[in-house]
């Protein structure tokens, strides 16, 4: 990859789905204790699919970019499909990450899965 792909810059300059959903159906956190970065994800679920998703991130540029990309990958997907979105899928969607930034995409995978689990737990599933 080039140092930064244009898709990376696109998300960096215009992050998608920033914020939180009021009274969400599910909430998930992702974090990396080594760098201290964290990600909060809230989801609205309708008909077992992710109708809406928002994120708040306190982290590096790669964490913000991959969190934004993750929300685009997850929105409109069934919960089953969204549960299978991996850090590698997220990384691919922004054109790849450098070796030292690869771990940043894990926050999105982690927080999304936690939000879905939170929804399922609240519904007794
Ligand atoms: Fe911590 Fe990127 S350096 S998530």
Summarize the structure.
The protein has 125 residues and is an alpha+beta fold. It has helices at 6-13, 61-74, 79-83, 87-93, 106-122; strands spanning 26-32, 37-46, 49-58. Bound molecules: FE2/S2 (inorganic) cluster (FES).
Attribute tags:
binds FE2/S2 (inorganic) cluster, Sufe protein. Chain: A, three-stranded antiparallel sheet, alpha+beta, single chain, 125 residues
Number-wise, the strands total 3
Order of strands across the widest beta sheet? 1-2-3
Oligomer: single chain
Rounded Rg: 14 Å
What is the molecular shape? globular
Number of discrete domains:
1
Tell me the CATH architecture: Alpha-Beta Complex
Order of helices and strands: HEEEHHHH
User: What count of helical segments does DSSP give?
Assistant: 5
Helicity range: 40-55%
The first-level CATH class is given as Alpha Beta
Structural account:
The chain is of the alpha+beta class and 125 residues long. The chain has one domain (6-122): Sufe protein. Chain: A (Alpha-Beta Complex). The protein is 41% helix and 22% strand. The chain is built from 5 helices and 3 strands. It has helices spanning 6-13, 61-74, 79-83, 87-93, 106-122, and strands spanning 26-32, 37-46, 49-58. The chain has a 3-stranded antiparallel beta sheet with strand order 1-2-3. A hairpin with a 2-residue loop joins strand 2 (37-46) and strand 3. Helix 1 packs across helix 2. It starts with 5 loop residues before the first helix and ends with a helix. 38% of the residues are buried. Bound molecules: FE2/S2 (inorganic) cluster. The site of FE2/S2 (inorganic) cluster has 9 residues, from helix 2.
């Amino acid at each position: 990859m080039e140092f930064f792909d244009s898709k990376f810059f696109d998300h960096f300059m215009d992050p998608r789905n920033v914020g939180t959903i009021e009274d969400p159906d599910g909430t998930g956190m992702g974090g990396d204790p080594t760098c201290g970065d964290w990600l909060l994800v809230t989801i609205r679920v309708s008909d077992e699919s992710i109708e809406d998703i928002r994120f708040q991130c306190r982290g590096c540029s790669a964490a913000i970019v991959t969190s934004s990309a993750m929300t685009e990958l997850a929105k409109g997907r069934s919960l089953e499909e969204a549960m299978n979105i991996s850090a590698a899928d997220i990384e691919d969607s922004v054109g790849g990450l450098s070796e030292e930034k690869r771990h940043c995409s894990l926050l999105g995978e982690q927080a999304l899965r936690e939000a879905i689990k939170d929804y399922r737990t609240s519904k007794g599933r």
